[in-house]
Amino acid sequence: MAGAGLLMLLDDITTILDDVAAMTKLAGRKTAGVLGDDIALNAEQVSGVAAKRELPVVWAVAKGSFLNKLILVPLALLISAVLPAAVTPLLMVGGLFLCYEGAEKIIHSFFRKAHKANRAHKPAAEGGHEAVADAEPHDAAQARQEMAAVTADLDAATLRTNEQAKIKGAIRTDFILSAEIVAITLGTVANAPFGTRALVVAVVAVLLTILVYGLVATVVKLDDVGAYLLRRKGPHTTARLARATGRGVLAFAPYLMRGLSIAGTAAMFLVGGGLLVHGIAPLEGWVHHAFHHAAGEHVSILEAVSSYLGPALISAATGIVAGFIVYGVLVALRRLRG
C-alpha cells in the first residue's frame, strides 16, 4: 500500500514537472521580445566603464536583477491572487518611467554634445596652467605633481561615482523589464494551479536572468576577446586566422556598442510604450484591429510586415510622446519648487 502511494506521488510529481516544462517553454517564447530589449538596454547601461571593471559591474547589476526577481515574483503572485486588476496599472507606471528615462537620455545626450562643441571653441590654455607657468622652476614642478595627484584622486572618485550611478540606473531599468517578464509569464499560466504558476514564474525569472547577463558579459568583453586573438603569434594558418578574427572583432566592437546604445534607448520607448498601449483598452483594440490578419487568410508580404512593424511603431510613438511629456512635467515642477 505504501509502495502504491509512493508511485502515485512520483507520478503526480512527474506530471507537474511536465506541465511546468511545457508552460516554461511557452512563456519563454512569449518573453523573447523583451529578452532582446533587456540585453540591449543592459549592455548599453554598463558600457563606458573601465575595462577591468566591466565584469564586476555586470555582476553587480546581475545580483541586483536577482534581488528584483526575489521581490517581484512573490509580489506578482500575491497581487495576481488577491488584486489582479492592479497588475496593469502598475505596469503602466513602470512603462511611464521607462519612457521618461529614454527621453532624459536623449535630452542629456543633446546637451552633452552642445557642451563639448562649446568647449572646443575655448582657448586651450586656461586656469591653473598659467599659474604653474608663472611660478619658479622648482615650485612649478612641485605644483604640477600636486595638481596631477589631485586630478588622479578626482578622476578615481568620479569613476567610482559614475560606476555606482550606472549600476543603480541599470538595476532600476531591470526592475521594470523584470516586472514585464513576470507579468507576461503570469498571463501565460493564469489558469494553472497556484503551485504550477509559482514554479513556472520562478524558473523563467531565474533562467532569463542568467541568459541576459551572460550575453551582456559576452558583449561588453568583445574588445578583450579581439585583443587576445590579435596577440596570437606565428606563421601558421590558425594563428593568422586568429589575428584576422581579432582585427575584425576590434573593428566591429565599437559599432556594436554604438548600435546597442541606440537600441537600448529605442527599447525603452518600445517596452514602455507597449505597456501603455496594453493598458489603454481603446488604443490596444484599435492597434489589434488595424494590424491583425486572421489565421488562414492569404496575406501579402506588406500585410505580414505591417502586422509586426505597425504595433511596434505605435508603441514607440506612444512611448516617445509619453516620455517627453513626463520629462517636461517634471522639469516644470522642479522649476516651480526653485
From TrEMBL:
Entry-linked InterPro entries: YedI
Domain of life, source organism: Bacteria
Alphabetical keyword list: Membrane, Transmembrane, Transmembrane helix
TM segment ranges: 71-100, 175-194, 200-222, 260-281, 312-333
One Gene Ontology cellular component annotation held by this UniProt entry: plasma membrane
Key word Transmembrane helix present: yes
Keyword Secreted included in the entry's annotation: no
Protein name per the record: DUF808 domain-containing protein
